[in-house]
Model the fold of this input.
Amino acid sequence: MTSQTPEQILFATFKWILICILIGILSGSASAFFLVSLEWVTQFRIQHDWIIWFLPFGGLLVGLSYYYWGESVVKGNNLLLEEYDNPKKVIPFKMAPLVLLGTLLTHLFGGSAGREGTAVQMGGAIADQFTKIFNLDNAERKILIILGISAGFASVFGTPLAGAIFALEVLYFSKINFKSILLSFLVAYAAYFTVEFWQVKHTHYSIPIVPEFTFSSLLYTVFLGLLSGLAALLFARSTHFWSSLFSKAIKYPPLRPFVGGIILAIAFAGFGFTQFSGLGVPFIVDSFNHPNAWYDFLLKILFTGFTLGAGFKGGEVTPLFFIGAALGSSLFFIIPMPIALLAGMGFVAVFSGATHTPIACTIMGIELFGIQPGLFIAIACTVAYFSSGSVGIYKSQIVKGAKYKLYQKWL
Done:
């Protein structure tokens, strides 16, 4: 191994700082445009609720676009994980516009999906283009993928610390070098401040009352974390189940979201389940103030798993927030703790269990809700992580460490 000269080290440092800034600006701008567009289509749907009946045709457009132009990027987030684990070829840039269009169509017509997957895929596709520009090798490509995920996540949720850690944790933390960690934080903040520059606002949540930490509150928190982990497990299994069922039952891929769209349109518009369409952010916000019915989180699991399994586009994280907040809020009837704290813990704990990222989710909870509930959030996220099973929402995710060894031993 040859040592580098000071000039080479300086050049490499400048190169990676430049790459981070460029990815941060480009990914942040893409996320800002996406968030503004998503808000517009969401408001249009709310004001013209009849449009939900056209969900099958929106699904058909999504299916056709991926079948004829996006076969190489249809795996979405899983493609990013696979390319990180075993780099083969640069991710096509067309992933970005295809997932953007697919997600906007999904939300315009009322599909139950999220937004993180879109931002992460746009960030990953944008970042990987720098492989050609700077003639990077496979080891450096891995860093680019981390940067793309970090930038996309941080910019779409307004949580740069959580975004940086999520990108590292969701991949395979033990194989990530120190340089990747530093660059992940740099690009996360570059993307975050880019969205701030474009004056795009994020949703704010609040936990105004945090009780004293006692043994009884510890037990209640562990109980909530356990239920959150089981909800995450159910969500992951549901999404994979519907995806497998549609693949087996309907051989022509574009017809899957069309058929799924018919069923969803009847459920949403025909049977009055519109509150479970789209992102559901108003419902999430309301969960911090008013108890939910015990079955609300189950219905969101059903509709989101069905939507994504049918082939519509979007992310899983905001629906996971919905599920967690609804679950936590409903426990207000049996757990003597503030409703906002219960909703907040569920909000991040279900996410932790579904993505195997307890550290990032704890940091996200602190970024969103403040340091005061940090201990409650950390415990809930950790318990959910260990109780959610070994298979999360990303099939290609490599799960190692203590959890992996525990499941090898006992399951």
Remarks:
- The chain has a mean pLDDT of 93.
